Amino acid sequence: MQKEMAYSFPDEVLKHVFSFIQSDKDRNAVSLVCKSWYEIERWCRRKVFIGNCYAVSPRMVIRRFPEVRSIELKGKPHFADFNLVPDGWGGYVLQWIAEMAGAYPWLGEIRLKRMVVTDESLELIAKSFKNFKVLVLFSCEGFSTDGLAAIAASCKNLRELDLRESEVDDLSGHWLAQFPETCTSLVSLNISCLGSDEVSFSALERLVDRCPNLRSLQLNRAVTLDKIANILRRAPQLVDFGTGNYAAELQPDVFSNLAGAFSSCKELKSLSGFWDVVPAYLPALYSICPRLTSLNLSYATIQSPDLIKLVSHCPRLQRLLFLIQVLDYVEDSGLEELASSCKDLQELRVFPSDPFGVEPNVSLTEQGLVAVSLGCPKLQSVLYFCRRMSNAALVTIAQNCPNLTRFRLCIIEPKTPDYLTLDPLDAGFGAIVEHCKDLRRLSLSGLLTDHVFEYIGTYGKKLEMLSVAFAGDSDLGLHHVLSGCESLRKLEIRDCPFGDKALLANAAKLETMRSLWMSSCAVSFGACKLLGQKMPKLNVEVIDETEPPDSRPESYPVDKLYIYKSVAGPRFDMPPFVWSMDEAVKILH
Amino acid sequence: MENSVAYEKATELRLGLPGIDEPAVLSSVKNNKRSLHDEKSGENGKSAQNETAPPSKAQIVGWPPVQSYRKNNFQQAKKSESECGGIYVKVSMDGAPYLRKIDLKVYKGYPELLQVLENMFKFTIGDYSEREGYKGSDYEPTYEDKDGDWMLVGDVPWEMFIRSCKRLRIMKGSEARGLSCSGV
Q1: Which of residues 258-277 of A touch B (CB under 8 A)?
Q2: Which residue ranges does UniProt annotate as crossing the membrane (chain B) (predicted)?
């Protein structure tokens, strides 16, 4: 009887139903219902997301999902962004490409983040996938413009080429000319990361000319202001545009040409780029400002009054990223203006212009953020660098913005206390986790004791990612987080006095997370080995660039530790300074 | 090497102060094996600009958490604001395995530039004349200008040269002679 129920719908019907189910979570749930659903589902899964490229092997993915058209892979741990992961650590994509070349001839989309991509990998992509449409290399490295030339030349229906934040060896600007004249399919092109050598501008113009569906274009710094009008006039349908250099001597005809070109872009909603801004050219944007929902000025070295003027023309702004200058007058007033004019603001990011300076005359304080929290009730995502904070301010922010999903605060000097009371900032961050019930991502800073972790463990039930630096007093802090945060997937810790106890007591928790990073903490080599031996579903890797961890007593702390769940076993591409704690792997290199 | 006593001790969650058998608790920055001033540990030499960041205090690796491309970008901008920009151009020489980079802003004129090139690549440049270019050597210094054309170094006034020069190439042999013979 039960068997009949399972087969009451023909496979084709189930397949059709499943095709409406896009999210991985739902598809995973579907595959658990019964064996036949598992089978049907795996044959029709088209999109795979792998948050850690070492959690599973290419072969395993291919075996389970034979008909994938789109893959997303992430490589290095997040702290690689801040130079904490040594070069050569890993995250190579070549083996994935090689295996998929054989198994997925119809693969159309590859999205990579923090991976090492060589020219060889790019050439293999160009050669192997006849229907290739989308290549996103987010914060990747290891390739040159030669590899890009191969992609441009071979991928006849390329829709998206996005190289954001990647490090590219810029050998020649002529790779753009490799796009054949027949290529008219581009929808999105992001070359903002390319070096200061000139991109072949005439090739770029011709490409833009023949791609009527181009919606998103981010130029690189080498493209000068006078060239913008030419590009925009060829692509008035653009929705998302990143300028190159926005500096030039003010010339009336250049200005009016530019203003005219911008105003002809009736769909333009998002702007970025703006390296080296000459303020006199900002008014050229005024005609499109009322439509703008996203503005990234995080490279724009402009002064506060010009910023305020610009932003006051953008009432619909939902997303604002900008760079705060250390100036003579208070920058908070700029944020106050912003708070009064951009009521729809959802995301705010404020970057430090002088991260290493010890300037005492701070022009941006916690007041700016408090003002935005008061004026912008839809605020969901915050990244804020500043030099002072108070518990009172954090409590106010928490109460004003209960809808926060991402809160990242970086007080530049480690272990800075509440500047009013000199207390730790436990209560302030505690208020954040308590009031913001949907908080998914949190980064801490300032002076913090174990108490803040108690709050986080108690209230942070939806917290998925936590970043901790220079905080806590003892293992109890780590224990609170590991035992309390039910949804925790990624935990990254640096320079905290967390040792073996909490880690070993919560070893099972680690199997439910994607990864744990701990550097400059107090976890002993002995504890790492123990974890490696007792937890076969985890890869426990010790990183030490100076000497092998077993050349010292077992009680000595390891330099860096990266633990992640994996069904693929220990990896084969570890460099000499990474040691696997897996029993089966020889520890001595 | 598994030691059951150590295992029990390791998994025992205590709330008191650390016991005597525990390793010294790290003071965060001091025990960092990397020197405090070496902000680029582990990085290759690509982001040379980072080295010029003014170390007003000891810098901690990876702190504050600002991504390298942002730091590079800002420092380039800061330099150009305060010093009106260094003009860095790549210099290649035919037959040399790798390129060099120099800051044209640093030199006061052609004689100084040519001297530097001679020292850098260990060769001699001939004597320059407006009519015949460089005579007396197999090498000729050339540059690519803003329009993408290859020009002989020395033909235009120095100020105009440093504003329009995109890269330098020390040509060798017949190709070089061809350039000088082609006249103005």
Answers
A1: 275-276
A2: none
